[in-house]
Each structure stands twice: as structure tokens, then as C-alpha cells.
Predict the structure.
Amino acid sequence: MTTHALQPTLLDSLTFASARAQAEALAAGRVTAVELLEHVLARIDRFDRAINAVVVRNDEAARAAAREADAALARGERRPLLGVPITVKESFDVAGFVTSSGNPDYADNVAAQDALAVAALRKAGAVIVGKSNVPLALADLQSYNAIYGVSNNPWDTTRTPGGSSGGSTAALAAGYVALELGTDIGGSIRIPAHFTGVYGHKPTAGLVALGGTGVPSGRRADRDLTVAGPLARTAADLELALDLLLNLEPLAAKAWKASLPPARHTQLKDFRVLVIDQWPGNPRSLHEALVVERVVERLRTQGVQVSRTADVPVGLLPDLVLQHRVYRSLLGSSLAAPPALSEAAQKRLEALAPDDDSADAALLRAPTLRHSEWLKDNERRVALRHQWERFFDAFDVVVTPVAPLPAFAHNHSEPKDARTYPVAFEDGTREVRFLDLFHWAGLPVLPGLPATSFPVGLDAEGLPVSAQAVGPYLEDRTTIAFAGLLEALYGGFVAPPGYDTDPAYEASRP
């Protein structure tokens, strides 16, 4: 099939299309996998000097995979992602590619085989274009490191796309690929999705196998609290990818299979929604108010039952302050080789009162937590999961902000835990500590709940903003469906100015 005369228009129309739409175009023969890949490579060559999202590439290997996909399509094969180009977070092993997690100590660590999640997407027909940038050791809200440099936000290159899946979301927002694979322990899928205006899903803990991720290579045990999950430009693509990522753990798959329940509702008006826009004990930022009020207006317009925390019976909603303390304790103790405390942090640790039960104290003590204390916190975690289950008898989803601010300007000052960021409140702008940016992101992590980050438009500065929907344990389809229903009514991803090549698409932008 020769389509050279029509190809520029067709390829431009697929630039910001969903992975599902790209797969359909390939299956219908409207475009070949080789043509689509060359379009993607050309866009990366054109834009990535400024963005620096895709930092590991093997164009010839990708071209070979695209040719194989075209041959399979010609034979009549049909797979969910056959011929669709994707990138994956640098911390996932891809055979023949370096996995360093941004750490120079592992700059020569070439993977011998694909991570389990990567292998699943490849089996579904995806063409692996390359790997996207991350922070050092995946431990920051900004994606930069000494190996690959700094990743910038396509909406404003003076700002970060987030971390640790920042290169992932920048690649999606810039129109390189339609699907990405990330990880999340403290918002590393959802915060970058929020900063760049794409969709991200943190699955229920344990659903997606983590084999073949991170450094050093060869680890068998999953890191506590960490999950792997998809990022995309549509909610439907999140579900498509999640289905491909289930039941990959070889030992467990011999007997145990996850079969996720369907979404609780198929119509938005049937959802029972609790919205929370203020963290207990903290003032509400203008950004938090903007995001939640925009969602509330849309929900109430559709006849959705929306409640506030004051409407919840006493004792039904888990104690978020207690939960955050336990989260910080288990988060800090989840590191096999925790970094040394900064001098200031060491002094704070030494000055802690024995009865200090704050979240700050929990994080400082976490690296040296006694196993007996870890077991107590783990018991609290499980108890909280059961309390959330009771809560979700009365509600279907909880909607919150993702962070107290939109994408911020690059800030690489050290030590990291001493950084502050400008957050706008009703009484003016204040500098907020790095550690205080994670309340919302951490909310679903400790109990292992699913959470979907979804865009809700732009703020007054023209930056994308998002909310997250948190749902019941193992009911991932419910939060994705909720985001998808809002997307169908109000739109979702919008391409950043200057990255679109299709005038018709640009003219249709809200």
C-alpha cells in the first residue's frame, strides 16, 4: 500500500491519537508500523533537544521491530498494540538497553532481558522506541541526573515535567508516543501526569509484577509500596494497558489470577463521590481549591452525589494524619540502602523527643526502624485498608488534588530535603517544604488503593492541572471509568502549544 501523497496529513492526525486509535489505523492498513515509527523518531529529533525526555534509544532495533509488526499485520495477526510505538521509564529493563535509574554507578548496566511488564507490552505488539528520563535513584519530583541531564516540561521548558516518571509524561505530552510505563511510590506516576496534563494510573498494590525494574539488577523481592502502571493521553488507554499488565508474576500465575471487578457504574450520575480539597491541619492552596471546585462543578452539573468531609459520619473516613505518619514510616524503611541523612536532618533526628509521633519524626526514624516497630506499622496499614473498604460501602471514589501546586520551576539545590517551593494561598504565596508536597500523592499508597490522575484543564498561567480519583482495593476499573466518563463529557488531554503539526487539531483545541 502506497500512501505517500496522503501520509503527512494522516500521520499528523495520529500524533496525539490514543494508542487504541493508532492500533486501529495500523490494523486497517491506513498506515504502516514503519511509517508511524519514522514519524515518531522525526518528532523526537525535532523536539527532544529542548525537552530531553527520551534519553535511551536504539533506532535500528525499533525499525526492525516495526518491520516485524508490518509483516505480522500483513499475515492477518491482530494484537492490542501491534505496531504501536511506545517508550518506557528508564528504570525498566529493556533487553540491550542500559538500566541505571539515573545513577552513574550503573551507567554500564545493560539489561539481558525485558522486565516482565515490558515483555507483556512487547508481546502485545508494541514497538519499543526507547527509554524516558528519571531522577537519580527515582527519588525526586524532578527528572534529572548526571548521566542524561535535565528533562523539561513541554508546556514550559523552564519547569519540570515532574518525577520520577517525568520523562515518561513529557514524551506523551509532546506527542512522541501514546503509551508509557511508569512506577509510583510517592506520586511518581500521578504527579508528572498532573504537571503535563496526561492520564496516569497507580494500580492496586501487587497487581503489576515489578520483576526487572530498578538497580541493582536481579532483585527478586518487590520494594514495599512501589507499583508499576500505565500513563497515556486517554483513560481508555490506561485500562487497555492495565489489562495487558495483569498476571505476569510467573510463580503466582501457576495458581492465582487477578480478575478485576467491573467498574461500579457506567454513568457518571450514579457515582457517590467524596471530595477533599484541604489536608487536615493545612491551609488550602489556591491550586487545590481550583482543581477540586472545577471537578465539583462538573459533577454537580451531571447530577452526581457529591459530599464533603463534613458530610461523612464520624469514624467512617480513616484518620488521614495517622495514615500519613504510617506511610512515611514504611516509605522511609522500604529502601534497601537508604541515602545518608543530610547534616540538618541528622540534627533534627537527634533532637527528636521520644514521644514525637509526627510524620516528620516517622520519616527521620524510618531508615533505622526496628523490625518489631515495622510490624506494628504494617498492622496499622492493613487495618487502614479494611477501614477504607468500609468507607467504600458508602462511597465509590474519593476525589482530591494531586499536589498543592502545578508544575514548578527547576530547583536543583542541595540538600533536597531543604528545598522549598512557592505555593499560593488566599493570604499570599508561601514557601512550602519538599516533604509537604506529598500528602495527596501518598494518600492511596499506604493502603494500596488504586488512583487515577486525570486532567481538568489549564490554570490562569496556562499550565495543565489534574485531580485524582482514589477507589476501593482491587477496583481499578472504577477509578479509570470515572476519569473516562469525565473525559467524554468535558475533554481531557490538550496538546501543549507548539507541538502540534495538524492545523485541524489545533483549530479544535478548547
Remarks:
- The chain has two domains: 7-249+495-508, 268-475.
- The longest helix spans residues 371-394.
